[in-house]
Write a structure and sequence with these properties.
120 residues
């Protein structure tokens, strides 16, 4: 983990970040760019579905890194199963990206929401 304090401050206003997962079969780093919302020490990402490669990676190995500019922040990913937490995360995500979306502009009860609890 590098640049935690500066990275977290910059991350709050960023449109996207890099999510570094560990490949569930290869053990190699897998990097994807994701849209997210940050609430306190938790970053929420909406995935295209539970079968998405990076989602399967974090379910197998929840230790992840979030990269923004030169900072890398360590965290643990988890599938959001609490309906209220999922709704809140989706509402915040859609509010942040509403002007950039071509598809649906509101959440779904069956959405795949991943929370990344950042290390302090």
């Amino acid at each position: 983990m590098t640049g935690a304090s500066g990275g977290r401050a910059g991350l709050a206003g960023a449109a996207s970040c890099r999510l570094v997962t560990t490949g569930r079969r290869t053990g190699r780093q897998h990097v994807v760019s994701v849209w997210f919302v940050l609430e306190e020490d938790t970053l929420f990402v909406l995935a295209r579905g539970p079968g998405t490669d990076w989602v399967r990676n974090v379910r197998a190995q929840p230790a992840v890194e979030v990269g923004y500019r030169r900072a890398r922040l360590a965290g643990r990913a988890r599938l959001v199963t609490d309906e209220q937490e999922s709704r809140r995360a989706q509402a915040a995500w859609f509010a942040k990206y509403s002007g950039r979306l071509a598809g649906p502009t509101e959440g779904s009860p069956g959405a795949t929401v991943i929370a990344i609890d950042l290390d302090r």
